[in-house]
Amino acid sequence: MICPVCGVTVLVREARDLPYSYRNKSTSIAAVTGDFCPACGDALLDASESARVSAAMLAFKEQIDATN
Ligand SMILES: [Zn+2]
Could you read off the pLDDT of 32-47 as tens digits, one per residue? Predict the structure, then answer.
Protein backbone atom coordinates (compact mmCIF):
# COMPACT_ATOMS: atom_id res chain seq x y z
CA MET A 1 0.00 0.00 0.00
CA ILE A 2 1.22 3.50 -0.86
CA CYS A 3 1.43 5.83 2.12
CA PRO A 4 -1.84 7.81 2.36
CA VAL A 5 -0.08 10.65 4.17
CA CYS A 6 2.79 11.54 1.85
CA GLY A 7 1.96 9.36 -1.16
CA VAL A 8 5.66 8.86 -1.78
CA THR A 9 6.44 5.30 -0.97
CA VAL A 10 5.14 1.89 -0.02
CA LEU A 11 4.41 1.14 3.60
CA VAL A 12 6.43 -1.53 5.34
CA ARG A 13 4.64 -3.94 7.65
CA GLU A 14 6.63 -4.57 10.78
CA ALA A 15 6.64 -4.41 14.55
CA ARG A 16 8.59 -1.65 16.18
CA ASP A 17 8.77 0.19 19.47
CA LEU A 18 6.77 3.38 19.22
CA PRO A 19 8.26 6.36 21.04
CA TYR A 20 5.83 8.54 22.95
CA SER A 21 6.36 11.62 25.02
CA TYR A 22 4.19 13.62 27.35
CA ARG A 23 5.15 16.65 29.45
CA ASN A 24 8.87 16.19 28.77
CA LYS A 25 8.78 12.54 29.81
CA SER A 26 9.19 9.88 27.22
CA THR A 27 8.49 6.22 26.94
CA SER A 28 8.14 3.69 24.22
CA ILE A 29 5.33 1.30 23.52
CA ALA A 30 6.85 -2.07 22.73
CA ALA A 31 6.37 -4.10 19.58
CA VAL A 32 3.62 -2.14 17.88
CA THR A 33 2.61 -3.91 14.67
CA GLY A 34 1.50 -1.80 11.75
CA ASP A 35 2.32 -0.43 8.33
CA PHE A 36 5.10 2.11 8.67
CA CYS A 37 6.13 4.68 6.08
CA PRO A 38 9.91 4.89 5.61
CA ALA A 39 9.55 8.36 4.02
CA CYS A 40 7.43 10.37 6.47
CA GLY A 41 7.43 8.03 9.47
CA ASP A 42 3.66 7.81 9.71
CA ALA A 43 2.11 4.53 10.76
CA LEU A 44 -1.18 2.83 10.08
CA LEU A 45 -2.16 0.48 12.85
CA ASP A 46 -4.76 -2.25 13.05
CA ALA A 47 -7.80 -1.37 15.17
CA SER A 48 -6.72 -3.69 17.98
CA GLU A 49 -3.16 -2.40 17.91
CA SER A 50 -4.38 1.17 17.77
CA ALA A 51 -6.53 0.56 20.84
CA ARG A 52 -3.58 -0.97 22.69
CA VAL A 53 -1.37 2.03 21.83
CA SER A 54 -4.07 4.51 22.93
CA ALA A 55 -4.47 2.64 26.21
CA ALA A 56 -0.71 2.63 26.77
CA MET A 57 -0.50 6.38 26.05
CA LEU A 58 -3.36 7.07 28.42
CA ALA A 59 -1.79 4.96 31.17
CA PHE A 60 1.51 6.80 30.70
CA LYS A 61 -0.21 10.20 30.90
CA GLU A 62 -2.03 9.20 34.06
CA GLN A 63 1.22 8.00 35.58
CA ILE A 64 2.93 11.32 34.79
CA ASP A 65 -0.03 13.37 36.03
CA ALA A 66 -0.13 11.36 39.24
CA THR A 67 3.52 12.08 40.03
CA ASN A 68 3.55 15.79 39.14
ZN1 LIG B 1 4.50 8.63 4.17
Answer: 999 999 999 999 999 9
